[in-house]
Fold this sequence. Notes:
With 215 residues, the chain is an alpha/beta fold. The chain has a single domain (3-210), classed as Nucleotidyltransferase, domain 5, CATH 3.30.420. 46% of the residues lie in helices and 15% in strands. The protein has helices at residues 3-9, 11-18, 63-76, 87-93, 95-118, 153-176, 182-185, 191-200; strands at 23-30, 39-47, 79-85, 127-131, 142-145. It has a 5-stranded mixed sheet. Strand 1 and strand 2 form a beta hairpin. It is elongated and about 55 Å long. The chain starts with a helix and ends in a 15-residue tail after the last helix.
Amino acid sequence: MTDERFFELTAYERQLAADGIVMIAGLDEAGRGPLAGPVAAGCVIFRSCGPFPKADDSKKLSPKRREALFEEIKNMSEGWGVGLADNEEIDRINILQATYLAMRRAVDDAIARAKEKLKESFVLPGTVLVDHVHVPGLKLKQLSVTHGDALSVTIGAASILAKVTRDRLMEEYDKIYPGYGFAAHKGYGTAAHYAAIRELGISPIHRRTFLKTIH
């Protein structure tokens, strides 16, 4: 990543620091579209003045780079968290509400870790930078940034936490439910995945509301 690109990715963070915000959080999700597995959300808390990892949109990075950044983000952050909403919750309350649920869980997880790390010096994030949406029920100030994972290093870091966590989980599911190819396609609707469903049927981690049209 060039210095110019990193400067662009910290524009929101620099503005919040100039506004007197001490702690900021980033929040993003992974896995809204797949046919199987949970939706995952990542949350990361940084000091608004940094330091920040050189984290870009997770979709632009190789799996190896995401894995390396996953550990770097955890080490550099004041707190980090991941939240999941499983396929049964998705089917029960719909994918949007399940995404919000995962996001709230991720924020709670990150705050708990930050409290444990910072103890008496802990303060709540003054702003949560969120990719594209406004999360209902989140009792913190939010700033929704469209395409935020490509515009904010903090949201980009959160997207990496969510993506890596979910990918690892789908690789584990591939061992539990062999034949579907979860390690390869991570639950997305590839031709091979549809063919496996027709041959093997629906697994316990499939989103049944996503599969009503499969014959």
